Amino acid sequence: MKLALEVNGEPRAVEVSPWKRLLDVLRDDLRLTGTKEGCGEGECGACTVELDGEAVNSCLVAAGQCDGRRVTTVEGLARGELLHAVQRQLVACGGAQCGICTPGIAVCAAHVVDRGLVAGCDDATARARVRELLAGNICRCTGYQLIVDAVIAAAREVAS
Amino acid sequence: MTAYLRPRDLAEALDARAAHPDWMVLAGGTDLMVNANHRAAPAGILDLWRLAPVCFVRSADGALAIGAGATWLEVERHPEVRAHAAPLAAAAREIGALQIQARATLGGNVATSSPVGDSLPVLLALDAELEVASVRGRRRVAYRDWCTGYRTTGLAADELIVAAHLPIAGPTTRTTWRKVGTRRAQSISKVMGAAAITLDGDVVVDARIALGAVADRPIRIAAAEAAVRGLRLADAAAAARAAVRAAIQPIDDIRSTASYRREVAENLVARFFSMS
B43 to chain A: nearest residue by CA? Predict the structure, then answer.
C-alpha cells in the first residue's frame, strides 16, 4: 500500500506492505537508523518512538496503522544543533554506555519530560515515577541510576 | 499482498468482518505483532485502532462501560474507572509498561484471553459482561462464560468485541487485585488474582474470587467462594486457602513452578480476606 505519514515534522510517502513493522519502515525505507531493534517483542523498548503523541514500541505497530499519523524518532528530538534537554543530560550525567538502548530511552524520556509527567512531583516521587515510566526500556549496562539522574535533571531544566 | 482496511464506523467494520473472517482483527498489536517480521503475513488486516465507536469509557445506570478499543493507559487514567473499578485501574498500570499500555486494548486482552492476561481476573471478579456485535446483531455474554479453553473464546468468526460492562459495586463490597511476577513491569505474571468481597459487618455475605496463570484460562474459584460465604473475615482466609489448594491446577513452565504458583495463589487469596 501507499503509506503517507509525518516523520519528525516532514511528510513522507513510501510503498510498503501494511504488515511491515513501523520499525522496518523507519530503518529500511526511510533510512532513519537511529531507532534500534532489541527484542522484536515489545519487551525492551529499544525501538521506542512517539506515534501520535504516545510512546510506543515501533516493532509492534503495523505500517498500515501509521497512514496519516505523526511519528517522532530519536532523529527528531534535537532542533538542528541544539540537543533536546534529555539528550544533553544523558551526555552530562553519563546515562549511556553501549548505546543500543539509548535512542529508545531518549525518546521515552523526552516524552515523559515534554508531557510534564513528573512535573510538580517532589524529588523522591519524581524518581519513582521516572523509574515506572521508563520500566519498558531495558538497559543492561548502566544500572539505570545515571539514566534516572539525567531524566530528572532534564525535567528540572524544562520546568525552570 | 496483505489487504488493509481502516473502517470509518462500526457498520463498515462489521461488514468487513463478515466478508473476510480470515483477516486479522488488529488494534494495538501488542500481542499480534510480536515477532511479526518472522511470521507469515495475514490475508488482510481489519484495523480497529482508534475506531471511535469502541473507544470510550462511561458510567450509566449503575454500570461502567469500557469500549473494546480503550487502551490500558486510558483505563488507568480515567477518573470513573479509578472511582468505580479501582482494581482494573491498578491492573492497567501494571500491564507491560508505558509503551504497551499506550497501545494494548481491553478488547485485545479479552479476544486473546490468555491465562496470564493481567486484566482478566479483574473482569471475572467484577462480574463483567462482554458486548459483542456482528451483522446479525448484538449479544451480551458473561465474561465467566467467555473462555472455552487455552486462548480460545466464544467469539464467532463474524463478531467483534464492542465493550465490557462492569456493574458498580456497592459500598459494602471491597474489591482488590494483586499480581506476582519477577518484576512489576513487563514480566509476565507468575500468578495474579482479583476479588470482590461483600461484607455485613465482619461476616462475608458473598465473594467472587478469580485467579490467572493457575489453569488453561483465567478462572473463578467457585469452591473458595462457597467456602467463605457466611464466615467471619478472621476465619475466611484459612477456608479460602484450603479451597484454592484443591481447586487449581497450575503448571511448571519457564516462568515458575507448579508448587510455587500453588503457594502464591493460596497466599494471594488469603490476603484478599486479611486486607478487607
Answer: A19
CATH number, domain at A61? 3.10.20.30
Count other Cβ atoms within 10 Å, centred on residue B112: 16
How do the pLDDT tens digits run along chain B, 276 residues long? Answer: 899 999 999 999 999 999 999 999 999 999 999 999 999 999 999 999 999 999 999 998 899 999 999 999 999 999 999 999 999 999 999 999 999 999 999 999 999 999 999 999 999 999 999 999 999 999 999 999 999 999 999 999 999 999 999 999 999 999 999 998 887 777 788 899 999 999 999 999 999 999 999 999 999 999 999 999 999 998 999 999 999 999 998 888 888 899 999 999 999 999 999 864
Q: What's the rounded Cα separation, in Å, for the pair A47 and B101?
A: 15
Sheet architecture: strand order including B191-200: B173-180, B191-200, B203-212, B219-220
Q: Is the ipTM of this complex over 0.90?
A: yes
Task: Indicate yes or no: CB of B6 within 8 angstroms of CB of A64.
Answer: yes
Query: What's the rounded Cα separation, in Å, for the pair A109 and B202?
Result: 47
From the list A1, A24, A45, the residue facing B99 with the nearest CB is A45
Among A42, A76, A110, residue at a domain's last position: A76
Bridge-partner residues for B59, per DSSP? B64
Domain B174-274 falls in which CATH fold?
Enolase-like; domain 1 (3.30.390)
Nearest Cβ partner of A136 from B41, B45, B97? B97
Closest-CA residue of chain B to A54: B102
- To the nearest whole angstrom, how far is the Cα of A60 from the nearest Cα of chain B? 5
Of A40, A67, A138, the CB nearest to B35: A40
